[in-house]
Amino acid sequence: MDASGTAAFRTFGGGVKVQSLEYLKIPLKQKDTVRRLIRYMIPHRRMLLISFLLLAGGTASEIAGPLLVQHFIDNHLTERYFPLEPLLALGGFYLFLYLSSAVMNYYQSLFFQKTSLAIVREIRNDVFQSVESLGMSFFDRFNNGAIISRITNDTEQIKELYITVLAAFVQNIFFIIGVFAAMFYLSPELALWCLAVMPVLYLLIAVYHRYSSIFYAEMSEKLSGLNSRLNESIQGMPVIQQFQQERRMIDTFSRENKAHYKAWMKTMKLDGLLLRPAVDLLSIAALMAVLGFFGYQSMNGPVEIGVLYAFVNYLDRMFEPVNQIMQRLSMFQQSIVSGGRVFRLMEHEEPPPKAEPKTMKQLNGSLSFEHVSFSYDGRTSVLDDVSFSVKKGEMLAVAGPTGSGKSTIINLIERFYAPDRGTIRFDAEPLEAVPEKVLRRDVGLVLQDSFIFSGSILDNIRMYAGEADEKEVRRAAEITGADLFIQKLPDGYHHQLGERGTSLSAGEKQLLSITRTVLRKPKILILDEATASVDTESEGQIQRALESMREHMTLVVIAHRLSTIKKADTIIVLKNGSILEKGTHESLLKQKGLYEAMYSLQKMKEKADREEARRT
Amino acid sequence: MRVFLDLAWYFKQERKKYTAGILILMAVSALTLIPPYVVGIIVDAITENRVTSAFLWRWLAVLAAIGVSSYILRYIWRIFIFGASIKLARQLRDQLYRHYLNMSFGFYQRRRTGDLMAHATNDIRAVEQTAGAGVLTLVDSVTMGGFVIAAMAFLISWELTLIALIPMPLMAYLTSRYGTMLHQRFKGAQEAFSDLNNKVQESMSGIRVTKAFGMEEKDQEDFRYRSEEVVKKNEAVARVDALFDPTISLVVGSSYLLTVVFGSVYVVSGDMTIGQLTSFTVYLGLLIWPMLAFGWFFNIVERGRASYDRIRGLLKESPDVQEAEKARAAKPEGDISVSLEKAVYPGTEEGLHHVHFHVPRGSTVGIAGRTGSGKSTLLRLLMRDMDPQEGFVMVDGTRLEEYRLDALRGAGALVPQDHFLFSQTIRENLLFASPDAGEREMKIAAEAAGIHNDIQAMPDGYETFVGERGVTLSGGQKQRLSIARALLKNPEMLFIDDALSAVDAETEAHVLAGLKKARRGRTTFITSHRMSTISHADLIIVLDDGWMTEKGTHEELMQSEGWYKWMHQAQQLSGRSEVE
């Protein structure tokens, strides 16, 4: 829709804003990403400074080693001058240097990694938190997989940036500077000559960076295309096999696989041309320069062999860091892209409906809708002028066919969305005035799709309400009747459930999620088709549970099954977003409308069930 | 090391590349030995003050020649060895993909998508590393290490060589120890990350509950806890990881010290020149890489072995449904008899029991029942996605097992429950099974499935992109698209698995009428929750918990006071409310 990277807003008549989320797929610009990455480093500046100092110390002592050998060769070995004590001191100093360099390098590397891990943890926590604070409308529209991959995989890629790339860049650049400092100390003239290597190196790096970013991007794009094709094929396997398209799928896959292979070969060849082999060639050239320099000098006068030794040694060491830096350039590029995606998501703003909370301790339990109208997209009306009210301790039932707007009523009560027109009131206060905490605590929701997470039964009922002890949990489970099946499970309340509670039946899962809500003693309990997928037996239990809960709380029940709502104080029947009928069970029966028809059907089912029971 | 034996078939296949690559690699190793030697010669010439212009140029020319030829040779062996290993990755990926396409329903029940993906990504990568970097590190550490030590021992001094090598075994020991420690901790870190992944997955799918309960803060706390665990486990890795470099530089440093101290003794005693000592230390520097390479080699090969074992294990699995010898190549056409005594999923009692019915060719069969009653299982048996333990399905008097698999599949088309579409255009999706179908045929099929008008209304029409990058189609639109896709194939047997659930009553009536016209003379099976979808069928079968409880036409079933009648009336009523 909009690919320019800016958010597009469309405003509709009702004042509802629908924002395109397309722009979230485009990462932030490199410059902005880098700025944010640096901002995350600031709180760790002390630790980073210590790491840098250790790095400097470690590198300096490592670089000093050959200087000592040079001193030894020039002042002792060539002169054949071997006083015991100074030599021992020299050897001891050499060992000390290496030891301290090892210690400093160890802590430097450890601190670097620790800091990087801490930074990534903060980015992760921040993005998770900012995502969870977005309004429900965001989750209803944005792909779940894309969110997950940004929070996990992309942040993991940022970790690589800090740990591998940053540390390697700093360390190796440090090393190169150190080596040059040592060379200048030994022989400024020769060092200047060696400095001539730098422009060549720079050119090499620039050329490599330019092409590698293109080639690597091409390769990783091909790979992700290949992987998503594979993923899609695995998921669509029944379709592929049923339609006998294996041949064609293999052909396409092989073609893409070959294209990826070619792209990969291209990066490999580029690496071969410009990475290690090229740097090694350069190092031989530098060696030739040093040898030639000393050779010519020796024709005109004496030469310090120790200096030559040190130079040869340094050259050897200087080119490895160059290799290291170049190898990480492509990784750097990928990490920046990942970071850009994460920060883009983190900065997305789509807050839940506005609230202007007053100070309010708790809800009393009455609820009313006053001429409420709502539309998700600003075009199709979902609720149209809906009014009803329910008093404390009463039970309100909402009936009606699928798509009539029943679940939307819940979305509005829960303040996931704000009504376009009209007012929702708790007691005398408009919904906007209710503080978030009070709303979440005093309004309990049981969804059609019970959500069970991996963990024990106890954890699932408590759901972070850690303060509830096992006794309270049991009492809640007894009220809802969940206790009956829980007792039969191995380990009872400590039975471990798999992802999404795969080992439980739909009815059992539903009882669990009702128990979870009841445990929290809400003032208003909302059940959204909570009995849709449970068998008759569990439904009876749930019904009994509702009976016993009525004393303590206001109930709003949405149900297909009329047996569940028969005893409601008020029943409203919705159709296409408007209220079609309204009344008690008895008054609706007298009306001889939809409700009456549904009720006689209910009786028929009971009869059919009884007969079935008799047959078996 | 065993992984090299396991991969022998590939080395044999690419023997030219590997032989040439390894020979060149060895030549490069030999060439690397010359520069330090030249350094020694020049240093000695300088000390003895006998450097001449010609002398200097001669040796510099040697160096230049070595530099240039090494550069070329290094480039070439990479093409050979890395080229071969990249090719292996490609070959294995193709092989796995083919294998996946041959596997049947049971395989996909056992294996999760993420796992199958991991085989084709991480595992292939690890095997590729073994065939590339693994070969390189082995050859390099053996030849280069051997050459360098030989050069040091024979060209300069074997005594000094031994002395210089004293600390090296310590390094080998330490690095391999670190490797083992790292392996354990790395596993822990991977697990913690996996845990974090699951946490995010659960949080995002359960976001509605979390928000309704106002549990965001607690959820974030839990996330932070797991995030912290990831940090802790990774710090454990870092503590070992940070040991590698300092250890190596310490060992190398002491080796240098030993060399200089004892080398000086030899220089003083006249057994050695300063130039020789200098080149000796350069050789010593050359030895670092083979030592490192040897450590890496074990690391790479260990991972490669594990991964290749996993891949082979997967490739060894054979499809559950096998083709009989001398199977019939003819397309199955004709009446269908189903006589299933027992058809259950392996290791369970879940499945179908005692299902018997007969369908004349050209009928429409409706299959009704609650979720989990066995409707999809019946379709699977009819398509031979699985075989029954007792009983059979016959088409034209011949059991399904006696038809060739491609003949069977050629005769059927499935519209699955979860309306699977590819991330391509609507046209490509419709033409998936029949790429050669014409424009007119495609539109007729779309019309019959009641989706043509919807498509026309989209800005890009039939070129509209489906999936994440394109428009989001509604569930009902996706279902009708997959019906159109199946209709375009014009199969002898069409299986529609509850694929009209998201379509409203009016559209459904339209689709059913379209189906009736398009399917004249051919057999269609429809499963559904909704009785209106199947009430027009020639035969209706009601399943309950894997058993067939009712069978007959709509009129017959309405006579008996069973589940069908009740459901039908119940839904009629709510249907009426929709129309009112």
Automatic annotation (TrEMBL), chain B:
<feature type="domain" description="ABC transmembrane type-1">
    <location>
        <begin position="20"/>
        <end position="303"/>
    </location>
</feature>
<feature type="transmembrane region" description="Helical">
    <location>
        <begin position="55"/>
        <end position="77"/>
    </location>
</feature>
<dbReference type="GO" id="GO:0005524">
    <property type="term" value="F:ATP binding"/>
</dbReference>
<keyword id="KW-0813">Transport</keyword>
<dbReference type="InterPro" id="IPR017871">
    <property type="entry name" value="ABC_transporter-like_CS"/>
</dbReference>
<feature type="transmembrane region" description="Helical">
    <location>
        <begin position="162"/>
        <end position="180"/>
    </location>
</feature>
<dbReference type="Pfam" id="PF00664">
    <property type="entry name" value="ABC_membrane"/>
</dbReference>
<keyword id="KW-1003">Cell membrane</keyword>
<feature type="transmembrane region" description="Helical">
    <location>
        <begin position="135"/>
        <end position="156"/>
    </location>
</feature>
<feature type="transmembrane region" description="Helical">
    <location>
        <begin position="280"/>
        <end position="301"/>
    </location>
</feature>
<protein>
    <submittedName>
        <fullName>Multidrug ABC transporter permease/ATP-binding protein</fullName>
    </submittedName>
</protein>
<keyword id="KW-0472">Membrane</keyword>
<feature type="transmembrane region" description="Helical">
    <location>
        <begin position="248"/>
        <end position="268"/>
    </location>
</feature>
<dbReference type="InterPro" id="IPR039421">
    <property type="entry name" value="Type_1_exporter"/>
</dbReference>
<dbReference type="InterPro" id="IPR003593">
    <property type="entry name" value="AAA+_ATPase"/>
</dbReference>
<feature type="domain" description="ABC transporter">
    <location>
        <begin position="335"/>
        <end position="570"/>
    </location>
</feature>
<keyword id="KW-0547">Nucleotide-binding</keyword>
<keyword id="KW-1133">Transmembrane helix</keyword>
<keyword id="KW-0812">Transmembrane</keyword>
<dbReference type="InterPro" id="IPR011527">
    <property type="entry name" value="ABC1_TM_dom"/>
</dbReference>
<dbReference type="Pfam" id="PF00005">
    <property type="entry name" value="ABC_tran"/>
</dbReference>
<keyword id="KW-0067">ATP-binding</keyword>
<dbReference type="GO" id="GO:0015421">
    <property type="term" value="F:ABC-type oligopeptide transporter activity"/>
</dbReference>
<dbReference type="InterPro" id="IPR003439">
    <property type="entry name" value="ABC_transporter-like_ATP-bd"/>
</dbReference>
<dbReference type="InterPro" id="IPR036640">
    <property type="entry name" value="ABC1_TM_sf"/>
</dbReference>
<dbReference type="GO" id="GO:0016887">
    <property type="term" value="F:ATP hydrolysis activity"/>
</dbReference>
<dbReference type="GO" id="GO:0005886">
    <property type="term" value="C:plasma membrane"/>
</dbReference>
<dbReference type="InterPro" id="IPR027417">
    <property type="entry name" value="P-loop_NTPase"/>
</dbReference>
<feature type="transmembrane region" description="Helical">
    <location>
        <begin position="20"/>
        <end position="43"/>
    </location>
</feature>
